[in-house]
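Hey,
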Amino acid sequence: MIFQEDMTIQRKLEILSDAAKYDVACTSSGVDRKGNGSGMGNSLACGICHTFSADGRCISLLKILFTNECIFDCKYCINRSSNDIVRASFTPQEVCELTMEFYRRNYIEGLFLSSGILVSPNHTMELLLQTLVLLREKHHFNGYIHCKAIPGADPVLIEMLGWYADRMSVNLELPTADSLRELAPHKKRKNILKPIRQIQLRRENEKEYLGLPNKQILLGKSDIIDSDMKEVISANTSLQLYQSTPKMKRRFVPAGQSTQMIIGATKESDYQIMSVAEALYKNFNLKRVFFSAFMNVNQDNRLPSTEEGPPLLREHRLYQADWLIRFYGFQTKELLSEEKPYFNVLLDPKCDWALRHLEMFPVEVNKADYYTLLKVPGIGTNSVRKIMMARKNASLDFADLKRMGVVLKRAVYFITCKGRMMYPMRLDEDTITRQLLSDKKQLPHGVDQSITYKQLTLFDDFNLNFNVN
């Protein structure tokens, strides 16, 4: 472990923003572009990433670790205690100074703050809480703040932090308890899920009081603490600290909570990973589950090799499936099974599902219900809403669908308009798959462009094969 005394804030920023890049609980731009002399600015500045608000706005965030020092020795983490890397830690005042100065210069609209474990989970959480209190109370910073909760920390500290943060997250780290025991034996699945449950209960409890007379959501006001929280707090020595916090009107974690899983470090299948993600959405009401393709930054022989690069295509397929579960009404058991535990490399999960359920197609666009249309490849949620509105006044044809944003290159095999398909075609899995893959631009990056789905035979009916461009 390497320490440098009298480190400047700029040097700390370089170290701790670089260390934060492995945390993907927000969307990073992934751009490294120098100024060209003819325009303004560049994207080489460290620590800036992007996320998206509920109304679709892109928000720039200062993304940093409070410290990259850590008492734990997770096999997959660059900041593990056994690594000889340069260590740095901010002070709460330094984080506030950086945030406010970046904000005044319009570099950012918010802060993403994570941290290694310095001394202990409680000590680290106290520093994070002090930082947020200074930002909100002293500097009156009203921008977006996403802050990590530290598993194993005092529930009261997590509770207090939630009144100052817009979003909180606790990293699940690895998909299953077995993989956690294998690569991070000092971390317990129960300790990770406990703060997630605590945040969920508090958010649900707060909603019960919104709009009721003579009830205010006040920071430090204990008369609205539910029975579960009372049990947690009353058994803790930090109750006095909780009750002494200045009262103010504020919502508790209004943007919800999220988590992150590392993909590819252990042997879980896509089916297992998506089952865990689906359970988290259902049981903990998470806003997002983020998937991070494993990179062997430690070159540890206990970890899988990534000489061919991180499993980015697998990560991409998981995100596509996650989108289908959250917005399209799919379930994991529809997309995968124990017999078919991995996603198709060549086709996105929605197309793959449709090809395995051709008995449901084609569907009539002018009659199919909302959820049936959502399952058609090439038709998204916005297009479905437009179709539902437009067909009240007229019968739609393929030209109308194209104007609505329907991707006919995929949808044409699965729909009819006014009882007719766009042109005659044979509805079987092999024929449609060849047509979908005929456009090499649609193949995922890294897949052999000469690959085909199935070898043609002398008995294929070439008259029914149409290449849709």
